[in-house]
Prior knowledge:
Blueprint: H1 3-22, E1 26-30, E2 35-43, E3 47-51, E4 57-61, E5 65-70, E6 81-85, E7 90-93, E8 95-99, E9 102-107, E10 110-115, E11 119-124, E12 145-151, E13 154-165, E14 169-174, E15 177-182, E16 186-190, E17 202-206, E18 209-213, E19 216-219, E20 222-225, E21 229-231, E22 236-240, H2 242-245, E23 246-248, E24 254-259, H3 273-276, E25 279-281, E26 289-292, E27 296-301, E28 308-315, E29 325-331, E30 334-341, E31 350-355, E32 361-368, E33 377-385
Antiparallel strand pairs: 1-2, 1-5, 2-3, 3-4, 5-22, 6-7, 6-11, 8-9, 9-10, 11-16, 12-13, 12-16, 13-14, 14-15, 17-18, 17-22, 19-20, 20-21, 23-33, 24-27, 25-26, 26-33, 27-32, 28-31, 28-33, 29-30, 29-32
Amino acid sequence: MNFRAFACALGLVLASTARAEDAPDTRIEQTDNSVLRGTLVAVDREAVTLATDDGKHESLPIATVRRIVREQARRAAAPTVKVVLIDGGELAGSDVLQEKDTILLTTADGRIEIPTNRIRRIAWLAPGESEPSWREALPPKPSSDLLVVRREGKHVFVECAVASVGVDTINVLLEGEAIPVKRANVVGIEWLRENTEPPGGIVVLVVGGKLQAASVSWSPEGLVIDDALRMPAASLRTIDYAAGRTVPLASVETETIDVLPFFKDLGTVPGLAAFFAPRTLATDNGPSVLLVRPRTVVTWRVPPDSRRFHATLDRDVPATAPTEVDVVLSVDDTEIFRKRIDDATAGRPVAIDVDVSGRRRLTLTVDFVPGDIGCGVRFTGAAFER
């Protein structure tokens, strides 16, 4: 390759790298439903700063931000170590080591610093494991820390006081005597610590883990959770502020309910009244689903400081069923949403996102269409957002 060709190729590589570095890597979802994209500059308790395509810095108050999403975040490699916190948070990596009162968790992006007293469990995972195989066999009420040792193909739980986690050994106190245990023989540590409630309503997704927090700060130098957990900046995937501001409709007590089925007498038959009344359906870790049948008029008092109400709705019948139903939402007797749900909307849930700022009551009406027997309607993820 001659010099000119080499210089041209090098220029293309450098230009491509520069474009990749300058490409917007972050999506900001705001409370007014607008979306802003750019390069994340900083996050603190008060604001999110984003560099936009035109080179300007946009500072958005946290109160106006629903989510921060790092769109170029990579997938995590299969972890070999899992750390569970006393508030239920989880982190994963490839190795752990204790330095004084801090556990250092090694990840592909760098080290995560965790105060030792916030850790409930460390588990060394076998290939293909996402949860330690010994977790279900834990004693229900241990009286001390537990060291989980692999012995002759079985797991043995040793009651002791775990003092420190070293490179090659785990130091424990057993009946007052300090004993080093080879790390190669240990598959887990379970500390005797009280569970605590998550410190706040902000949900933070990082590469290989999930946390809840009261405060989050980020800069190119690192990510800090609750002024205690410190991790590499590249670990961040999502900061979900809306999670802590959301009040599921299922948790709000109804103020009034008026139910009148198509065959009116059925609503008075013992055992059938509950069938026609609005009810929350069980889901497997997904958003709540509220099932409402016509004709139902139900009113909730809007939680204080609520700004928006959102949900998606669809019929509770097969997609090919020709039946239809009218759905109306009102706030303080003013209609704000109306939609006829029929087979044309099947498989395409209708989004509801309405302003309830300063309002006192939300009323939902699910009604028959003339000449139609009607059907139930599913409201998925129905919630007020503060």
